[in-house]
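SUBJECT: A protein chain and its fold
Encoding: whole-number codes for local backbone shapes
RECORD BEGINS BELOW THIS LINE
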Amino acid sequence: MPSFMVQIVLIGVAALMALVIALAHIFAEGAKGQLRARLMAFLVLGPIIAVLAAASMLHDHVPLELSWVFGSDTVSMGLVGIVTALCLLVAAFDALLISRVDTALSRYAFMVLGVGCFVLAGAELHRLDQLMFGLSSLQSLNLVYSAIGFALIALSAVSVLAPARKWLERQRGQLILRDIHAFISWLQTSRCALVFTLATAVLLQHESFEEYSELMLAMTLMMFLVAYVREWNARGLPLSPAE
């Protein structure tokens, strides 16, 4: 597990990169008509996410009466855990739907994602994470979370870089690139997608936000998969078993 100071550096770097990407997204050339909507998304959702993140961190270090929100050793699970599990269940359902119609490689990827989300939702509901992962494994999990966070930042950066977007547009017919293109398009078109994605990427860098960052990651994944299912239906390709 990264040391405390390393985590501070990682979250600082992630926050700086997220700020640059957010500004590039808000003030993107050719998107002046959306400037107000994009700015308001960050101004409204940003403070709410930040306040909840601060409460999550304080809950780990200061005796606050927030066990009903974040859970504790004496409370089986809090509201955050319940919502995380529900988001994972919705994500699992949508991922399995997509796996029935997507192309071969992507189909198996979404199938694994769906099963994984279902298992994690069950573990969250029964507070099995400490049993499933020993201390050393939980430390390794923090490294995985950090890597996921920077992967989200990389995808977010692609969404604001016109040359990268155009290249991905040309390559979107190739296997998994179509699904990556769909995620980038979602970041571009949804008002709150980039807010949640960047916030999740930053929060994943420090273990103090572990419960809350898991909620943010589950919500981000769920929102994308719900949007992706709608996109499939909009193409006139109902989500039924592939031939």
Observations:
- Residues 54 and 209 are 8 Å apart (CA to CA).
- Residues 35-61 form the longest helix (27 residues).
- DSSP finds eleven helices and no strands in the chain.
